[in-house]
Amino acid sequence: MSNTNLTFLKEIVILGFDENLSIRILIFTTLLVGYVVTIVGNCLIIVLVLVSPRLHSPMYFFLCHLAITDMIVPSDVIPNLLYVTLSGRGTLSILGCLTQLFFFGISANTECLLLTVMSYDRYLAICRPLHYKSIMSHKLQVLLTTCCWVVGFSLSLMVTCHILTLSFCGTNTINHFFCDLDPVLDLSCSDTFVIDIEVLVVGILIIFLACVFIVVTYVCIFHAILGSPITTGRKKVFSTCTSHLTVVCTYYGTLFANYLSPVSGRIKYLSLLNTVMTPLLNPVIYSLRNQEIRSVLKTYIPFQ
């Protein structure tokens, strides 16, 4: 069995939630409603940005891409999770499991980078308002978002391809609700030292450095705001900062709670935070805290 290669492992069993049927039905209903609201909310933001000239600015261009990443994760995880929750357990082929892990990695990496780009955009708007339009040109917007997607795709592909070289033996059961990285690596009987180093390096580059960059830009933003009178225009720009900062705190808070939690037994429940809750909350945060989006929404939905 120690020589069993990944190609000989036909499927992986996902245990999901070990609750009684009534609790699982409640979880199923909550997940289904949350998934529908997530997709509708993020699609609504994209449509509003596309159809409203008032939202044709760099911040909302980046927000559209953020909404796309927020639809990838739940669409990647929740459909199979609904089946697993209702039936008590489910199976995925090896290809399906690695595909799920691959798209989850793309979304997580790209969202970290997009939040970093959005913080840079807010820094330019607040700290260098006279040069903002000349610096943050449409060409730069496209270049930055393209880099986010390419880097996110490449890093996820690198890790997924490396997993393909591992040998797996023993049980094929994952005590989780989707093919996350750690549960998949736990099935391997190969030495995972190299891939652990890869993941650590990616984590430092994508999560830690991005987080540091965001903190530095917001220190500069708050310093600029506190050091000069806040005009009406600056108040308007700062309102988008509060929305973005709330999303950043929510995203990194759930990320750290999930992957830095010492309570491994509850890891799959904590994973619900960044796979289900964050994509659901992001459009709600931008809708409730952003005056421009609320105003455009009222224009197209008069009964609000």
Summarize the structure.
The protein is mainly alpha-helical and 304 residues long. The chain is 75% helix and 3% strand.
Distance between the termini: 63 Å
The shape is globular
CATH class type: Mainly Alpha
Counted up, domains total 1
**Helices and strands: which structural class?**
mainly alpha
- For CATH, the homologous superfamily is named as Rhodopsin 7-helix transmembrane proteins
- In spatial order, strands of the major sheet run 2-1-3
Q: State Rg.
A: 21 Å
Could you list the spans in which at least 5 consecutive residues all have pLDDT below 50? 1-7
Overview of the structural elements:
By secondary structure, this protein is mainly α. It has a single domain (6-300), classed as Rhodopsin 7-helix transmembrane proteins (Rhopdopsin 7-helix transmembrane proteins). Helices cover 75% and strands 3% of the residues. It is built from ten helices and three strands. The protein has helices spanning 21-51, 58-87, 94-127, 132-135, 138-164, 181-186, 193-226, 232-259, 267-289, 291-300; strands at residues 11-14, 90-93, 173-174. Strands 2-1-3 form a three-stranded mixed β-sheet. The longest helix is centred in the middle third of the chain and has 34 residues, at 94-127. The chain is globular and about 65 Å long. 33% of the residues are buried. InterPro entries: GPCR_Rhodpsn, GPCR_Rhodpsn_7TM, Olfact_rcpt, Olfactory_GPCR1. This is Olfactory receptor. It is found in: Cell membrane. Pfam families: 7tm_4.
